Amino acid sequence: MTPDHVENAKQAVQHVAVTGFSWSATLLTILNLLVGSALVAWIKLRPKMRELDQSADAKLIETLSARVETLEKRMDADRQAFDQKLDAERQRHEAEASLLRHRANNSDQCIDALILVLENADDVPDKVKRAVISIKEMRDRQRTAQALEKGAMTGAKMAAATAVTGAV
After folding, report:
1. Tens of pLDDT along 13-39?
2. 16 near 22, Cβ under 8 Å?
3. SS3 state of residue 83
4. Max CA-CA distance within the chain?
5. How far apart (Å, rounded) are the C-alpha atoms in residues 63 and 21?
6. Are 112 and 140 spatial neighbours (Cβ–Cβ below 8 Å)?
7. Helices in the chain by DSSP H: which ranges?
């Protein structure tokens, strides 16, 4: 450095020392003011931001509650419609089963009447009499098997009802 530059630097240092002014100190002061202002603004806005968050949460809860209520109402309506359909189908099936039982009972009565006629007839060949006896034995075995099956079904229904109600 030349003596002129040294002299200029000396004058600048003396000027700062006397007046307390420099560009770097000015920039640092402005920066401190900006950071401080931002911090103050953040501190002042923080309660309002919390309030906004809480109101948004409350609005979300309200919206979700309304949706759940709507879905529950729709499920109840669907359940009622399904129960009505199920009841109608059960009634239809019960009527069909009743008709089938009635037809089967009528057929049994016709077979029993035929067997009775053949047993009481005088001029029936021995082969027919043996067939009638065989058929009667077979029908007795079938009735016994049906009674056992009916008892098993009743026992299963009772066990299922006990399991559902929790009774011992």
Report:
1. 676 666 666 677 778 888 888 888 888
2. yes
3. helix
4. 161
5. 61
6. no
7. 3-19, 23-120, 126-165
Q: Where are the domains positioned within the chain?
A: 51-120, 123-168
% of the chain surpassing 90 pLDDT: 51
**Sign of the dihedral defined by the CA atoms of residues 164, 165, 166, 168, in that order:** negative
Residues whose CB is less than 8 angstroms from the CB of residue 143 and which lie 6 or more positions away in sequence, other chains included: none
Burial of 69-92, coded b for 16+ CB within 10 Å and e otherwise, reads eeeeeeeeeeeeeeeeeeeeeeee
Identify whether the C-beta of residue 43 lies closer than 8 Å to the C-beta of residue 49.
no
**What's the confidence (pLDDT) of residue 1?**
52
Q: What type of residue sits at position 13? A: V
Reported confidence tier of residue 76, pLDDT bands at 50, 70, 90: very high
Structure-token pair, residue 138: 């077979």
Tokens of 35: 């950071």
- Work out the end-to-end distance of the chain between its first and last CA atoms, rounded to an integer number of angstroms: 110
User: Are 139 and 111 within 8 A, CB to CB?
Assistant: yes
Give a three-class secondary structure readout of 123-141.
CCCHHHHHHHHHHHHHHHH
